[in-house]
Write a structure and sequence with these properties.
The complex is a heterodimer of chains A (545) and B (104).
Chain A (H helix, E strand, L loop, with lengths): L5 H20 L12 H4 L8 H12 L2 H14 L1 H4 L2 H26 L4 H9 L2 H33 L6 H22 L2 H28 L2 H14 L20 H15 L3 H8 L5 H9 L1 H20 L15 H9 L2 H39 L5 H25 L2 H16 L2 H9 L5 H20 L14 E3 L6 E3 H22 L35
Antiparallel strand pairs in A: 1-2
Helix pairs in contact in A: 1-9, 1-10, 1-17, 3-10, 3-13, 3-14, 3-17, 4-8, 4-15, 4-17, 6-12, 6-14, 6-15, 7-8, 7-20, 8-9, 8-17, 8-18, 8-19, 9-18, 10-15, 10-17, 11-15, 12-19, 13-17, 17-18, 19-22, 21-22
Chain B lengths: L23 H15 L19 H37 L5 H4 L1
Helix pairs in contact in B: 1-2
The chains are: A mainly alpha (545), B mainly alpha (104).
Chain lengths: 545, 104
């Protein structure tokens, strides 16, 4: 970590320049007549086939931050905080397989752009769809901020930064301005196109790293042994407990499983995942992708193990400020053991890997604001062009907010709020997904369940964090009431949420309280392109209320 | 509007689309997918070091193998549903035009 790694930096800049050009050219991809509608700008014209969707979702779900944070967690504390990402992405696909088809169909039939639109169509209740929209926006903001943290980590290891604020933050500001500009001009087409480059590079880098590095350090057996030894050694912070967990024991089974299950349930409630799903061109694209997206899970699993490789390699992730920072462990491992030019490629892959999800997230959050706050409350008469305009501006504001977050607040805050965002977004699942299958749940019961889950999750994450030694919101685990073991707070809150929703639904149905107006019919949930007897999309400009 | 409980878009109480009904295929698919969700989360069944494979402790390689199994289960589900949909489309085109699309 002495001085700037010039070769790596040049390769990084060249790759960055290439994707920038692509981002601007993307506006012409499958040349739409008119980009000025949310269907074109915000959903890429709903034209993406299986392959494009695979790259787009892959670029979206497996973010740069994932590639930095998962191995970092493995390096620092082992399996329960890091490797749970593998069962998480295993159970994710069977879970989303259940509802992706119906979600796509009803959105396609009615021209819905966001999850809150779907809720609005099903229950005709603005407060419920507003709750879903606000939760989505709040949960997405820190997620965008984390992508910037990923770029920062790479830049820091190349040696950019130092004492002056300007030198440290200027590269990030430039990357950011470029990202904002092409998202503004090209919409969802930009990340879709860049995702091809990003994923190609990531695959290349991981393939090389996973073959070359273990050979260099004497094979996997020794690497796992080194990791086991480190995890069993007394923790530096508290010598009474071991550093981490190599293989979960009795006390941590539920923590491991609940983190995986809760995260998997939550992921496709995030606006950016829904946006990428709804942009596909037919009903089966999402499900077909549930079959082929696990390729990325394998990648993630192998990448997680690079955290153990770094243990064996004795990587020292010391930041420019002289303090140890686990987030730097993977960039540092690459810099130590790859030739400079390949380090540049790897860093480019991570940096570009941050741009794709950041773009999609800001588009998705902007769509939510436009459709479910602006159009629903402020300007019901807004037309397509005005919607697109508002979305473009809001996408800029979201990104700017994320930037301020990273520049002004402690990096740990972005991380903590992202954890909290995961707890929150999971609470929108009953409103979004249950409605795709049944109208049994009552709208006010769903709203009350959402509120109960939000409050429980936030309070527990803030106050009663039993396992943490660090500040509030920093730990996703807490003791589960009745079970008496540590579990994922989000999943416990979700159970509270569903219980409240079920009990209140029974009460409200017995009291015969109106359950809102449903704009959808059953056949909407099976609509597909080119099916005989299925009409084209219901008039897209039709108001959703 | 006051006491309306049922789906306002559909006539109350009756299914308007045959595909909404649960079929044996759908039960089979749900069972297959549930296997893919539940089994990988049974942590005690695989939380151990031996037997190792290529140096990987059992805990680690077993989960990586499940990536492929889960993908296979989704693939099987996809195929089953596709088969059912094809037979539905065939049956409907034989009824020539009496489809839900005309209802709207």
């Amino acid at each position: 970590m002495t001085g700037v790694n010039v070769v790596a930096l040049i390769v990084l800049i060249v790759l960055f320049a290439i994707v920038t050009v692509m981002g601007f050219l993307a506006a012409r991809w499958r040349r739409p007549d008119n980009l000025a509608s949310l269907h074109e700008w915000g959903l890429g014209g709903k034209s993406f086939g299986t392959v494009t969707t695979w790259f787009l979702l892959g670029g979206d779900l497996y973010t740069a931050y994932t590639f930095i944070a998962v191995p970092a967690a493995m390096w620092a504390t082992g399996a329960v905080s890091g490797f749970f990402a593998v069962p998480y992405t295993i159970v994710l696909y069977p879970i989303i397989f259940f509802f992706l088809g119906r979600m796509w169909s009803v959105a396609h039939r009615h021209g819905y752009v966001t999850t809150a639109d779907i809720v609005q169509g099903r229950y005709g209740t603005r407060s419920l769809s507003l709750a879903v929209a606000i939760t989505g926006i709040l949960a997405t903001m820190p997620y965008i901020a984390l992508q910037l943290v990923g770029i920062q980590a790479v830049l820091e290891v190349t040696g950019l930064g130092g004492s002056s604020v300007l030198a440290r933050d200027l590269p990030l500001l430039i990357a950011f301005a470029v990202l904002a500009a092409y998202t503004y001009s090209s919409g969802l087409r930009a990340p879709a196109m860049i995702a091809f480059v990003k994923d190609g590079l990531i695959y290349l880098v991981i393939a090389v790293a996973i073959i070359y590095l273990p050979l260099k350090f004497g094979g996997w057996h020794g690497i796992f042994d080194a990791a086991q030894a480190k995890m069993a050694a007394p923790s530096a912070a508290n010598p009474k407990v071991p550093t981490g967990i190599f293989i979960p024991g009795d006390a941590t089974y539920w923590a491991y499983a609940s983190l995986a299950l809760g995260s998997a349930l939550a992921l496709f409630m995030y606006p950016h995942c829904v946006t990428a799903t709804l942009s596909s061109k037919d009903r089966s694209t999402g499900r077909r992708n549930a079959v082929i997206l696990p390729a990325y899970s394998l990648l993630l699993g192998l990448l997680a193990l690079l955290g153990y490789v770094a243990i064996k390699a004795g990587t020292k992730p010391i930041g420019l400020d002289g303090k140890a920072n686990p987030q730097l462990v993977i960039p540092q491992l690459f810099e130590d053991h790859f030739p400079s030019w390949f380090t540049g490629v790897a860093f480019g892959a991570i940096a570009i890997g941050a741009l794709v999800p950041a773009a999609i997230m800001s588009i998705a959050a902007a769509n939510l604001f436009t459709r479910n706050v602006y159009k629903a409350y402020l300007r019901p008469e807004a037309n397509d062009a005005q919607e697109a305009k508002v979305s473009k501006i809001v996408s800029l504001i979201t990104k700017f907010g994320a930037l301020l977050f990273v520049l002004l607040l402690d990096r740990q805050n972005a991380l903590n709020f992202q954890l909290l965002g995961g707890v929150w977004i999971l609470q929108t699942l009953p409103s979004i997904v249950f409605g795709l299958f049944t109208r049994w749940f009552h709208r006010w019961a769903l709203l009350a369940g959402w509120a109960a889950g939000m409050i429980y999750g936030t309070v527990v994450a803030y106050g009663f964090c039993t396992l943490c030694t660090t500040r509030s919101f920093a730990n996703p685990l807490a003791i589960v009431p009745l079970l008496g073991r540590a579990g994922y707070i989000g999943l416990t809150a979700f159970v509270v949420n569903v219980l409240v929703a079920v009990v209140l639904t029974l009460v409200l149905r017995a009291a015969k309280v109106s359950n809102g107006t449903d704009l959808t019919v059953q056949s909407d949930y099976f609509a597909d392109i080119g099916q005989p007897g299925v009409l084209r999309t219901v008039e897209e400009s039709q108001p959703i209320r | 509007m006051n006491s309306r409980q049922t789906n306002a878009g559909d006539p109350p109480g009756q299914p308007t689309d045959p595909r909404w009904k649960l079929t044996p295929t759908k039960y089979a698919v749900a069972a297959i997918l549930l296997v893919g969700i539940v089994v990988p989360l049974l942590v005690p069944t695989y939380a151990r070091v031996e037997p190792r494979l290529l140096g990987f402790p059992f805990f680690y390689w077993y989960q990586l193998v499940w990536v492929f199994i889960a993908a296979g289960l989704c693939g099987l589900s996809f195929w089953l549903l596709k088969r059912e949909r094809a037979s539905y489309v065939r049956a409907r085109s034989e009824q020539s035009g009496l489809s839900d699309g005309n209802r709207r």
